Amino acid sequence: MCLGVPARIIAIADAGRRLAIVDILGERREVDLSCIAEPGEALSDQVGRWVLVHLGFALSRVEEADARVTLDLLRQIDEAEAGKGHLKASLLA
Fold first, then answer.
1. Higher-scoring residue by pLDDT: 83, 34
2. In terms of DSSP bridges, do strands 50-54 and 19-24 run parallel, antiparallel, or are they unpaired?
3. How far apart are CA 73 and CA 91, in angstroms?
4. How many CB atoms lie within 10 A of CB 78?
5. Which of 23, 30, 38, 67 can bridge 50 by disulfide, Cβ–Cβ 3.0-4.6 Å?
6. Amino acid 89: pLDDT
7. Is 51 in contact with 2 (CB distance < 8 Å)?
8. Where is pLDDT greater, at 66 or 26?
9. 22 pairs with which residues across the strands?
10. Are 11 and 20 in contact (CB under 8 A)?
């Protein structure tokens, strides 16, 4: 099963390559913004926005409220099934 995970863009790592740093459950990862970047739009405008990340790509923008609900549900599933900490390791592998 494929799973997109909500993440908040915290910085632009390389504007030329359309790479950003995102925060996913307290972990920082580099992701590609090519799928969401509009032509002519400054990538710096993306900082602070929430995106859905899958396999290192930001696939779509999401609203912060929706992202937080999804992350909360993922945490609840993790606690019910595997115990704390397992979710982060599996999502960020």
1. 34
2. unpaired
3. 14
4. 19
5. 67
6. 57
7. no
8. 66
9. 9, 29
10. yes
Beta partners for residue 29, in sequence order: 22
**Whose structure tokens read 């950003």?**
20
Residue range(s) defining the domain that contains residue 86: 5-91
Looking up residue 52, the CATH number of its domain turns out to be 2.30.30.140
Domain count, the chain: 1
Q: Alpha helix locations (H) across 1-93?
A: 64-81, 86-91
Report CA 91 to chain centroid distance, whole Å: 10
Which of the two residues, 92 and 71, has the higher pLDDT score? 71
Q: What gap in Å lies between CA 42 and CA 37, rounded to an integer?
A: 8
10 and 22 in contact (C-beta within 8 Å)? yes
Give the chain's length. 93
